[in-house]
Design a protein that fits this description.
The chain has about 150 residues and is an alpha+beta fold. The chain is about 50% helix and about 20% strand. A five-stranded antiparallel beta sheet has the order 1-5-4-3-2. The radius of gyration is 21 Å and the shape is elongated.
Length: about 150
């Protein structure tokens, strides 16, 4: 269900961006404002673009969100302050804490909106440290910062 919701969000996001770009091109008179002549295939171009955006938005959540292991030595009580410091330095605040599992969200409302409210990073405690789940592009920075910060513990 989460995957489907992310795909729908991305579809809407892409359609809005495309509409803004096309509107800007029409406003600056780069292209003609007539919808039937705006694209090579006329009105057929709209369903083709919609289909292309649907395919892209259906595939993107598979690559845009992932999980990654952070190998950290020490007890949870020793690791928690380091995790809080690293996440604070990267602009995250604690959303919830369930035992040794943590959930963080972006502090900035603008950053949250730009990430379509899909900015959550989840820490799941395991024997070797934590497993982080969230945006694929954010995880390498967080994992390397955590491993560096906790290397002297």
């Amino acid at each position: 269900m989460k995957y489907l919701l992310r795909a729908v969000k991305y579809y809407v996001y892409l359609v809005v961006i495309l509409a803004i770009v096309i509107s800007a091109l029409v406003a600056f008179k780069v292209i003609d404002g007539d919808l039937s002549t705006m694209f090579v295939n006329g009105y057929d171009s709209y369903w083709q673009m919609a289909l292309l955006l649907a395919v892209f938005s259906a595939v993107y959540p598979r690559f845009g969100f992932s999980s990654r292991k952070a190998y950290l030595k020490g007890a949870y009580e020793e690791l928690r302050p380091a995790v809080m410091e690293v996440m604070g330095n990267h602009g995250y605040v604690l959303e919830s804490e369930d035992g040794e599992n943590l959930t963080f969200r972006k502090k900035s409302a603008l950053s949250r909106v730009l990430k379509m409210c899909e900015d959550r990073i989840t820490y799941t405690r395991d024997v070797t440290g934590f497993e982080l789940e969230g945006l694929t592009r954010d995880l390498p920075r967080l994992v390397s910062a955590l491993e560096y910060r906790t290397s002297d513990l």
